[in-house]
TrEMBL record:
InterPro entries: WG_beta_rep. Residues 1-19 form the signal peptide. Pfam families: WG_beta_rep. Keywords: Signal. The keyword Signal applies. The keyword Cell membrane does not apply. This is WG repeat-containing protein. It comes from the Bacteria. The lineage of its organism: Bacteria, Pseudomonadati, Pseudomonadota, Gammaproteobacteria, Moraxellales. It comes from Moraxella bovoculi.
Amino acid sequence: MRSVALLMMSSVLVTSAWACDRPPLGDYDWVGCIEDGVSISYQGVKHGLVDVTGDALIAPKYRKIHRLGTDEFGVSNGEKWGVIDRLGRVILPMEYDYLLLHDDSYYEIIKEGRYGMMHHGQMIIQPKYGSLSDVNGLIVAMERRTEGRYGNYGLIDHHDRVILPFEYDKIFGFGEYFVVGKGDRVQLLDANLQVVDQFEDADRSYHDYLPVKRGGRWGVIDKSRKQIIPFMYDEIFIGDEGLFPVEQDGRWEVVDIRNQIVADFDYDFIFGFNDGVAVIKKDDRYGYINTDGKLLMQFNHSLRHGFYHGLAEVVVYGRDANGDEMALYGVTDKSGKLIIPPKYHGISMSYFDASKGIGIEINKKHGMLDRSGEPMIDVLYDKPFFFHQGRAEVSKDGRGFYIDEQGRQIGGSWLINEKACRHIQVGQQFEVVIFFGSTIPMEVMSVDV
């Protein structure tokens, strides 16, 4: 019966350029992708909800709506957030600063810098922690002390019961294990929180290998706790290619999981491999090598970040009209070819889907280029932006509004509340939601590319 129902629905769905099904547009300015039989609608400057036929479930009356699961939605009046169900019934009043989705049934609530958690419409953890992050079925929580300083880490369950006391400098997951650290001692705990190994230090890893320190030297273990790289290095980095840049007595090499040397170099620094490429540094300049150790790009400009979707941000330094040093940014591919020459005051590599476009900044104004470096969105807007389901939120001259991928305004505009620009802490890291650069004159006196 389910397959028949879906077939019948298909006659009323509209497929967008974002390869998702949407209800008919009707009188709305925009409708989002259908998920679980519901789509977000937008009219004027307000959002609502519609079903697959385009009929209103909730008339447009909210500044923003975010999905928090199958039946729960975060709603905002432009300053505070609350939670409703798909029929508009209030689950949480609009008195929270932000909402962060964990999965389809758990989401964080943030109020006055303190984090709590909801589950199926029930508040299971009051907003009182400095951060929350899921690890192996438990939650790593960080104390938030009354004077505003962040405290130590502990483990709690989903009923806010303390499992490990708040006395650790770090807690994170590695496979089925918990890595907990305090001072110069790091322990590896099993699912029963029993100590199965101990080290002097350990670095967080998002791969299948964990860098750990013992006897003053670094090595690597895998998720079965087997030692892969012996404890013999001063520095070690983990990448996604099964290769490890290591430093011993001032010399850098790249070794594989058998600790066999793949390549050794006369470089000052080698970062971990990502997207098949590692960043290398020599004399304050940066280049790239592949997994065979081949130099892909000469040391003719500096690096900003690693590769993402085959592209990386680069920077060169020159002088502005006042003689002060200034940085200009561009984008290179893996062959070392400059896709975008370094002539912009900023490249927003973290704000875009790289398959769509690349954010650029000139004199505090933002626009977008396509992957070939051709203009996509004019440099007109006051902050970086990215596209989601075919639209992006932008601001200009103190007003906010949405645009489509051709730069055309969608619906109306609203007065910007600057308090909405904030840093949001996610787990044990900070995510910069909005970053404003400084105005720099465009004249460049000397730049070598």
